[in-house]
Amino acid sequence: MLGYFFRRLAMLALIVVGVAIFTFVLSRALPSSPIEMMLGSKPTAEQIAQARADLGLDRPVVIQLGRYIVQVAQGEFGTSLRTGRPVMEEVIQRLSATAELVSLALLLAVALGVPLGILSAAQRGRWIDGLTRMLAVSGVAVPVFFLGIVLQMIFYGWLGWLPLQGRIDTNLIVDFPVPAHTGLLLIDSALAGNTSALKSAFSHLVLPTLTLMLASLATILRATRNMMIEVLGSDHIRAARAYGASRRSLYFKLALKPTLVPLLTIIGLTYGFMLGGSVITEVLFDWPGIGAYIVESVVTNDYPAVLGVTLVISTLYLLINLVVDMLYFVLDPRIHV
Amino acid sequence: MSGGLVIKQLSLSFAHAGGLAAAVNACDLAVMPNEIVGLVGESGSGKSLTALACLGLTPPNCRISGSVQIAGTEIVGASEATLAPIRGRKIAMIFQNPMTALNPFFTIGEQMMGVIRRHFSVDINTARASVSGALAQSGLTDIALKKYPHQMSGGQLQRAMIAMAIACKPDILIADEPSTALDVTVQARILNLLRQLADQGMGILLITHDLGVVAQVADRVAVMYSGRIVETGDTDDIFSSAAHPYTLGLLQSSPVMGGGRRKMHAISGVVPDFRYRLSGCAFRDRCTHMQTICATEQVALKSLTPAHQVNCHFPIAQSSTAAKS
Questions:
Q1: Chain B: residue whose CA lies nearest to A261
Q2: Where would I find the H helices in chain A?
Q3: Under a CB-based contact definition with an 8 Å cutoff, are residues A216 and A270 in contact?
């Protein structure tokens, strides 16, 4: 198993290098260049030449690539052309905001989706199954931006219970700054014992979390239900019933484990996707996350930022997949290397 | 009638486009303590479905009528709450395919402990002792406890399945083709084990299509054809003087040791599709003795001797059977 793990890790490193090369070449192949953005509307020819030399853009692409790879290997992702801050610092900051949102949303989706899926499988064809089916279909069908706006209208506009957008009350954070340990505001403010910051962070999280959760809840619920039904139809479940297994031990033990294993892949893939793909929710709630950062960087041709984000996100995606595959070893006794 | 399994007028049918199709028809069968009853028939004759009905595990779309009693408790129509304490404790079943009937995600030990602790409120050590005992009885050691199903051979799995079935010392054991997948030496051991269990007081319903197996261990035999019991009697009676043409056909279809290299006898035709049940006797199209009355009238079981009953208008005369065999 350890050997397998290291083989997978080596493979992962290779893929990351491939991703780095691919994104680098793509960024250089783009017709527009970041120079225009940096130098304003009417730069002189000397200014352009100067900027190109500064950025190393006058060298052959292969040399540029080589320098880039060496830099990345040293953990140096360059500075953002747009903000002038180190890319790595920005990515980590933005990513932790997204991670807080996405992890919470996924956790909720699993915590609700799996039991509801089991319930629907157990009550197959009854009204409760129909109800969760409706929930799942609407969860997939309703566009995220629409759901977000409706939630904002209800809870901010009409009821006034929750803030419209942002990650925390800005006045509050100026008066009582929360030291960043983990980058997750909920945890950081709890560590600092700052209850008002904790409350504010929490109330800001509710709406974007709900918005983001619904689609993955639908996927996880339906996947759990369908896999559970398949497992319930298998010979060993009938045999377990023949030996007097109670409904509880069927649904929460004997049929659950065979259901969970394939479900893990779905959860892992969803998590990886949500980390990079929650742009709409982030923009809608003005959440300072990585998805919004990607969009801003791409639109402004901020290629060090684009390259850095792409590398980090794809590495994370691969790591999550690796974790899922390693969990298979723990959960499925049939897999051994 | 307390200890045994008593099936009376059991009918199982499925709704389909053309109406209601009977898979099992007015079946009467009893298994008493200390005896092994062989239930013989071709694939699709309704044997396994009858067994499932005894556990209250018929598929949800199956309509059931008649009565199945285990130690006086009615199974047909009983609630899950009534059935759960009976299943595995009063009546247990050895399933046909041990490869799929054991849960691949739990060790044999975990699965067996689950069964024991479901039915007896005992501490772990006592439960472990009974699990070890059951494993030893079926010829496995405690090494099997820690194994997952995929780590064992077919024969070992079959024995683990048997150990699981006998772990709670049920009154009635249904063994559905318990030795079909096994090689002959293991098969013999398992049949010996069944005999031993019956001698200790268990009632066993042995479902098989292998007449050799039946001849070795069964006390009584019931022959099933197309959802009906067509002949029942003591094993000796059936083998020496089969009265139903179908039983005779089955007997003649078995290979004979030392019989030489000749063409095997086969009953012509196939088991009719149970959705298009023939009027009268279901076997008539394949029967060599068929007459007009066979197409119009269904017979009930007729007693030839008190223990030997047959479902046929023209049972084969005892002398002619003797002459043929």
A1: B105
A2: 2-29, 34-39, 45-55, 61-73, 87-122, 127-141, 144-152, 170-175, 185-191, 195-232, 235-242, 247-249, 256-277, 279-284, 290-299, 303-331
A3: yes
Q: How far is B89 from chain A (nearest CA, A)?
A: 7
Phi first, then psi: give them for residue B219, nearest 5 degrees.
-85, -40
Contact B174, B51 (CB under 8 A): yes
Beta carbons of A235 and B164 less than 8 Å apart: no
Smallest CA–CA distance from A236 into chain B, residue? B101
One digit per residue, the tens of pLDDT, for chain A of length 337 reads 788 888 888 999 899 889 888 888 887 777 666 676 667 667 777 877 877 777 777 777 788 888 888 888 887 888 887 888 888 888 888 898 899 899 999 999 999 999 999 999 988 889 999 999 998 888 888 888 888 889 888 888 888 788 888 887 777 776 667 777 777 877 887 777 777 778 888 888 889 999 999 989 999 999 999 999 999 999 999 999 999 888 888 898 899 999 988 899 899 989 988 888 788 888 888 888 898 898 888 888 788 888 888 888 889 999 998 999 888 888 888 876 5
**Chain A contact residues (CB < 8 Å to B):** 234-247, 249, 254, 257-258, 261, 331-334
Written out in words, the top-level CATH class of the domain with range A90-331 is mainly alpha
Give residue limits of the domains in chain A.
2-73, 90-331
